[in-house]
Amino acid sequence: xxxxxxxxxxxxxxxxxxxxxxxxxxxxxxxxxxxxxxxxxxxxxxxxxxxxxxxxxxxxxxxxxxxxxxxxxxxxxxxxxxxxxxxxxxxxxxxxxxxxxxxxxxxxxxxxxxxxxxxxxxxxxxxxxxxxxxxxxxxxxxxxxxxxxxxxxxxxxxxxxxxxxxxxxxxxxxxxxxxxxxxxxxxxxxxxxxxxxxxxxxxxxxxxxxxxxxxxxxxxxxxxxxxxxxxxxxxxxxxxxxxxxxxxxxxxxxxxxxxxxxxxxxxx
Length: 268
Description:
Helix content: 25-40%
Order of helices and strands: HHHHHHEEEEEEEEEEEEEE
Distance between the termini: 44 Å
Strand order of the largest sheet: 1-4-7-10-13
Largest sheet: 5 strands, parallel
């Protein structure tokens, strides 16, 4: 029961988690001046990151039988594969975004790539059943980028987020390979009910799908088939067959202001 206060000893410190997330990102994608010095520092940084992660794990709300070192080692054993996936994500963005001039530019400046990176790292912790910490890392990326990817989502590789602001990807979302999302996309649940916590309540997006800005796709039984194009501002609550194009048509009216006598008080 909540007592009106939170014991800090039972939770990771927010500033420590923020520093850990950023240090881990820069550990995977460092900017260096001297390769020899970098190799020496890289080993030292890995050691420091392991110490920090172990301490964070041990301050999570857990039972008593937790082996922090085992969980920490398991996390770092999976980092090389995760780093390879992130390079593929970055290359996917560089290959398809006409505004991207290099892979380095994507890694250093793209909020979409940063959100993907933090998601993939938080997802490793989520799979290890570490409480609270994955969510805190997800919220760090959310606050920095406006992109909200729950650490529990399953996302293939490569994955592309362009612009990204306002994207929401729910916990039980499944996304295939070669998927592109644009700003304002929501992959959410049909309803927010606590009793649905243990079931799949978010959609499945199969391989090679493009979802344009402002589209909303809802429901755990909703599947967007492979090789679909989902146009902007669409609202989808039922499955879409593979190789479909889904789009919303809206009427835009242009009139001469001098002869416009209709009331305009409905305009916000």
